[in-house]
Amino acid sequence: MTRRPGNHVLRGFSWLVYAFLYAPILVLIVYSFNTSVQTARWLGFTPRWYAQVMRDHELIESAWNSLLIALVTTVVASVVGTLAALALARLTTRVAGATRGLLFLPIVIPEIVVGAALFTFFVSVKWDLGFWSIVVAHVSFSVSYVAIVVRARLAGFDRTLEEAARDLGAGPMGVFWRVKFPLILPGIVAGALLVFTLSIDDYVITSFVAGIKTLPLHIYAKLKINATPETNAISTLLLAVTIALIAIAQWLLREPRRRK
Amino acid sequence: MTRRILIALCSLALVAGCKDKGAATTQAGAGERVVNVYSWSEYLPQDIRDQFTAQTGIKVNLTLYESNEMLLDKLQAGVSDFDLVVPSDYTVAILKRQNLVRKIDSSKIANWKNLDPRFLGRPYDPANEYAMPIFWGTTGIGYNKQAVGTIDSWHAMFDERYAGKILMLKDSRECLAVALKLMGKSINENDPAVLKQAGDMLKAQKKLVKVYTSDDFDQTLGRGDVLLAHGFNGQLAKLVATDRAKFAYIVPKEGATLWIDAFCIPAKAKHVAEAHEFLNFLLDPEIGARLVNQVSYASANAAARAKVKPEILSDPAIYPGDDVLKRCEVMADVGDETTDLIDKIWQQVLVAP
Amino acid sequence: MKRRATHLLQLLPTWLVLGVFFLAPIGIMFGISFREKGPAGTLKPVDDVKAYVASGKFLNNYRESLDPSYGGVYWRSLWVAVVTTVVCLVIGYPVAYYIAIVANPARKNLLLAMVAIPFWTSFLIRMGAWKLILGTAGVLNTFLAIFHAGPLDLLYTPGAVLTGLVYGELPFMILPLYASLEKMDRTLLEAAADLGAGRAARFWRVTVPQTMPGIVAGVVLVFIPAAGQFVVSDILGGSKGALVGNIIQEGFQRNKPLKSAIAFELTAVVAALLAMYAVYLRRRKESPL
User: Fold this and answer.
1) Which of A50, B101, C60, C213 is 20 to 30 Å apart from B198, CA to CA?
2) What distance in Å separates the CA atoms of residue A216 and residue C102, rounded to the nearest whole number?
């Protein structure tokens, strides 16, 4: 794009939006050092809430649980959702239509109904609520999101690329992994990010089906009692961990310098 | 690149599998002694639970829920994960009616005699067989006295002068109790006509109310978003203690709710002996005092009073005198028909413009 | 034929997961929406199913949910969801465009991640932070006080709820838009430029139609949760302007039949809107799935 002024406006606007997105984050980081227990009034700087967080082994256990649940959910939902998107990009049969309807359901039905329904279901099949009940619940509402995002990516996918690859002698697996997959990968990544986000912060559905503590549940319980700056400290730490994870992921995903 | 990611994911999956096994054993390991407590507030600080484990070898697993309704849901569904639950007064009666709780064997609890007799023999459990009271308090008004002066009546919550600066609890029975008290009636009123009238009062009040919440009423008052907050005494007392020149808490002259939270043992509890041991531990005078000092709510453990911090003991918001208690009522189970009517009325208050 | 079988096999995991862990539980809840409530959260047992159905009693909950007092709530919920979606689209499109097309390609993943990172901290705490920002003695008003500007009454208003909703839904608009923009064929834009189309024309006649799948995906992912949400209106709205989600959540345990009925009605309305949209898109050969 060679329109300079337009680009500047876009850049400026985008950074404004980023500022909007991060304003509350900044506020909660700053207030996590507040001496006052009544979080609104600033009374002085203190790192003691962080010390309290480190001593809170329930919190650490909850955070770990949430992370694991989100990771497993992301992997499973991404695989299932991508497969579905791939199939739906080609099929027009009634099965495809029914699948489309099925995939829309988790998005359309309010979370509270989904949560209560899953709770009733687990109890009736005598499935003990624990780690896997949460994962299953999370996967069931996440698949649709991946499917939609990957499908958006697949729309108008250039089949001639596939044909070209086949003409060049690639087998069906080769065509998929070397042509199609790299091209839809940004869509899968976007979908995976979405699912991870949904899972790690899910409160409503998790509150119904949880057998172990997750971070949102722990935070919600703490917020209910009294929102001390400790909850802000928790969030700040989580943010730092998340950013560290992103950095690691960036390192994992970087292009290798030399290719054979 | 793909290989690296796959390796990372596989190792995480392995760890996930191990973690799950770990989680399973903490809940109810064979041979390991545990007591699973399901409570609706942070009544049991970590250090107290740790001390119990150190003394008896029984691990305490605490799970928090957010409302009596959620507790009922889980118990009705037949969930048997919990050995102790902490319902509020009228919920105990409902649990009894539905046979969801079992009797507490007070003979197994040596410290039972430490309980304050004022909180025994209550309507929800006349024979003291199913519930052990633990904390009690009042529901009154916390207010900014620099802004509104001294108040002593629920009328302040309906005063046009404070429009947009009032907070009410998001609780059907507590809000109706306010209206009923202003009408000079009992908070356990059954008469549909009276209840409808109370509902109309609340609907008219709505445009004066800024916030309905049962969670951070103290914070909202503290931040200055409202000047008058309907709320529970423990949290409000903590706020008042931070600035006695600015804030105050009163139980209005018309009377208010006296709430009592109690421990019950679910009918399907698996670790009944451990539950009894834990209850006995909580009734120890020293432990009881530490609980009060940490959570700022008055305890039903009379023997603990000796060791409670003097500033808490002398705080009328936390330990009100008998004159205040006289004008307070405990919520009773008003029966299904009235409960349904109350739900309908409250619904209309919520959807009112 | 082999191709068809492969595709069907690709759909199998979806059917397994959603069939067992979604359809079955929802089916149970749907059944509950036709029952009568019992005392304190239980269900009244139905002794004679035929008579129950014949008497029309099984529709009682749905009848009750159409009580006129709920009318204002339903309209308000629709309005809130529409405004949230439009604002998200208007704000999100430029940002997605910037990341996908204008920004340095090496930075794309980072910029994308920056959109998502805030959402890996607790939603509840971020809403709490908005309370600190918008409150009477909050960050914004403290800042304004420096310029002697009066304290603005921002918290516990419909505006605060909207801010919270847009804040919470924005990444669900930006990410699908990005996915769609990123794979757009830019040579079409160059061709349009060569044919003399100005910037506006290029945008509305090439870019937007090309990214319609992303737009639709974003709209779907934002509108629907916005229509049924209840957390933001509780935290930032002070539970004042009741939305459908609030009605469903309030007293859910004590009257599951009625609340489930309302929830399924919400579902039906949203599904109907989606279906209309899907038909429209099918005509243009742009279904989101």
Assistant:
1) C60
2) 36
